[in-house]
Every structure is written in C-alpha cells, then in structure tokens.
Protein: GxxExxY protein
Amino acid sequence: MHENDISFNIRKAAFKVHTALCPSLLESVYEVALAYELRLLGYEVKTQVPLPMVYEGQRMDVGFRLDLLVHNRVIVEIKSVDALLDVHHKQLLTYLKLSDCKLGLLMNFSVVHVKEGIVRIVNGLQDSPRTSA
Structure:
C-alpha cells in the first residue's frame, strides 16, 4: 500500500476522532483513539515507538518517540496545542530522517476544524512549502 493511500485513511480517521471528541484534550487521548480507528481499518499501528539516532556509527537511544507508526510507513505526530510551531515541523522532519520513512503527518487536534490542524511533511523535501492535508 502506498503512503498516500495510508495518509488518506489516517486523515479520515482523524476527522472521525476529532468529531467524536472535543478539541483541547490531552495528546494521549487522541493518540489512543486514532490508533484504535486505524486498527479497525486493518492497519498495523505502533504507538510510542522508540527511535534511536546513529552518531559516528554508534546507536544512541536519546529518548525520541514516534507517537504513531502506521503500517511501518507513515509517522503521525500528534499535538494538542494553541498553534503549531516551527519546532513541531522540525521534530517530525527529524523523525522522518532518522527512520527513513517518506511521509509524516503532523496533527494538531486543538483546532475547531481538524483539517486546519493537519500538515503533511515529506522526507527529502524539507525546502518545499508546507501543505495542509
């Protein structure tokens, strides 16, 4: 299955979760609900996946954790904040580079319309403009 197909279904599930739950809950609430919805769709979903870095050939566990890894192909970073900051975008881009995944979704559930809180980030295209999902 292609990353874009997975991304479409992740966004669809996020809309369902956002509609069922109100904005501004804890990130962990959205993470559990979104993982549940994606598993119902038949996806393999891993939560709080440790992500090491390699420095000078040495693996170092530095505390990076992916909120969701869907089908071992798409990273979902969940936020519940007033506004997404550049540091949130950079965090997901770092995760993409360290994991060699090609696609990530940055999702802020603390918005009125969840579509406004979803940003799609592609590994290797960090200089391209950010696009809303």
User: Anything to note?
Assistant: The chain has one domain: 3-132. Residues 3-20 form the longest helix (18 residues). Residues 3-132 form one domain.
